[in-house]
Amino acid sequence: MRFLALIVLINFYTAVYAGWLPPENPSPRKILDEAREDARAGRYEDALLKHLWFHNNALKYDRAFYGVRLSFALSDWQELGHKYPEAMHSLEATRDMAGANVRSSVNYYDSFNDYKSINEKLGEEEKTIQLFRWLDKNRQDRAKKVYRLAQSSLVRAKEYELCSKYIDPENSYLRYVRYFRSGLEFSKQSPFQAKAESFAYTSFSNDVATLVALLARGGRKAEAEEVAEMAMLEWDDANFSSALSEAIEGKVPTPWP
């Protein structure tokens, strides 16, 4: 699988690379912007080459593009694929290569994140679940490491039993609290304070309620109640309390956002 995916990308580069070459000192932001402009102007081959370059090289120049690379950039690439089939083929090949890397333990954490993110864009989350099942069967140490990336896909598929094997309530809860507090702090300085604050509260509520529900579903109700009690001390809110009560009874909220 990995070899075939690589051949697809090599063949594409060989066929059209003459259309565009990265500059000597490339700017990931500029190249991504150019890819969007090329797509709007119908220069699809150049647009695809720039998306491929950005996906494969942006983090070498600036790690701050980690989130953009797996969100807005993938959305643009997918949109290009609706107009230019070769772009969709290359996106799928890139996804397949990431999956092969996970199986062969090549940069497996980031590769799993690539695989999962592309599958979400393509509406093929079942592939993510299948790969996580493979890790669960063959490399449980790696499954434990990537579980937090896979959780939303597993929850949407109601794979609660599989989730219960890998949830780490202490570390997960501490991470959610850290994100919550930093989100509220950020909102105070944001020009969109209300939206930023709402995001922090909603994210915390969904994350903690999911953790509590998965613990309850996995027969770990005492741990579920302990997490819920700590969370209420962190944020005393009636709606949040109600969500946690439902979670203790095993009602798993829909992943958000």
TrEMBL record:
Superkingdom in the source lineage: Bacteria
Protein name: Uncharacterized protein
Organism lineage string: Bacteria, Pseudomonadati, Pseudomonadota, Gammaproteobacteria, Chromatiales
